[in-house]
Amino acid sequence: MSDDTQQHAPRSVLVTGASTFLGGYLVARLAANPAIERVVAVDSRVPRKDLMRRMGRAEFLRLDIRRPAIAKAIATYDVDTVVHAAPSIMDDVEHSAAIKELNVVGSMQVCAACQRSPSVKRLILRSSAMVYGATAKDPASFTEGTRARREPRNGYGRDLIDVEGYVRGLSRRRQDIDVTILRYQSMLGPRVKTRMGGYLSMPLVPTAFGFSPRLQFLHEEDALAAMEHATLRPRPGTFNVSGDGVVTLAQAVHRAGHVQLPVAPSLIPPLIGVLQDGGVPMIRSEHTAYLTYGRVLDNTRMRSEFGFEPKYTTLETLDDFITRGKTEPVLSANTWRDFEARAVATATALQ
Asked: β-strand 81-84 against 214-215: which pairing, if any?
């Protein structure tokens, strides 16, 4: 561990959303760090047994962050750093009134508890690029200061816009608290279950006819590393977090060895409902714009101000997901190469 990390390492950390991939594995990493005196894991659901074992010396509290009990936990454990990872529930759970309440009301309670606690000095929020929305008039890439052409009106994007507002309000009221907001790009990895991962795992992938959306991906390991980086080194501000590079949706489907089914954008959600095998998180109408227009983030500030360097590019993330994940190609790589060779030969002959 560097001297800078040792100097700024928190003493007592509380992590919400401990049963999720990001929250649980972050707790495991922090618990393995001897520079941190205490790690408290919080969730209304008990983590899987294997994840609980990984958490080691961390103390698990089963409580609902929508209740005042979160304030009592922060006070009892004299917490100085709160990592709010609970909104990561959006990865594999359908949005509903109950989920909205957990995201919005739960975040209000977390912010209120931090505001009342004299010990809290840092708050890290796991947000998402979904706050930017997706339209045909979007810029080539979103910077942290770019306003969405059309803000999401419902779903997780709307929730997170509200949550970010509460967190920024806390930073204005308690200027002694460093607030860091991480806007994650679409996550992929062999272990984490996400909506995009499930979508790309389908053998027959419904896509928007006539559109070629540009996509970026964030590897699960980089997502964890970025949150750990924010916890160990105070870097207040809002930061896009994404792997470098861009791929089109057609390229992603091609590399997975799957087949596109071009349809009208409005037909994508119902077709996925028909084609899914039960293991694919549903794509709702709120996600149709993203699968039609795509979304790309400018991650300059991630390096220059946040000081974080991802290990995986977008393409490397996609390839690792395909190689080590559970997706099976419909068409093998050799089949694609033979097809490309024949197409090139035919085009040459016609010239």
From this structure: unpaired
Closest Cα partner for 164 from 68, 269, 84?
A: 84
3-state secondary structure at position 14: strand
Evaluated on CA atoms 312, 296, 329, 22, the torsion sign reads: positive
Structural domains in the chain, CATH included, are 3-330 (3.40.50.720)
pLDDT score for 3: 47
User: Does residue 280 contact residue 193 with C-beta atoms inside 8 Å?
Assistant: no
Task: Write down the mean pLDDT value for the chain.
Answer: 88
- Cα–Cα distance between 164 and 35 in angstroms, integer? 29
Residue in the structure block whose two tokens are 């089949």: 335
d(CA 207, CA 259): 10
Mind listing the pLDDT tens digit for each residue in 292-340?
999 999 999 999 999 999 999 999 999 999 998 767 676 665 665 665 6
Distant-in-sequence, close-in-space partners of 53: CB < 8 Å, separation ≥ 6: none
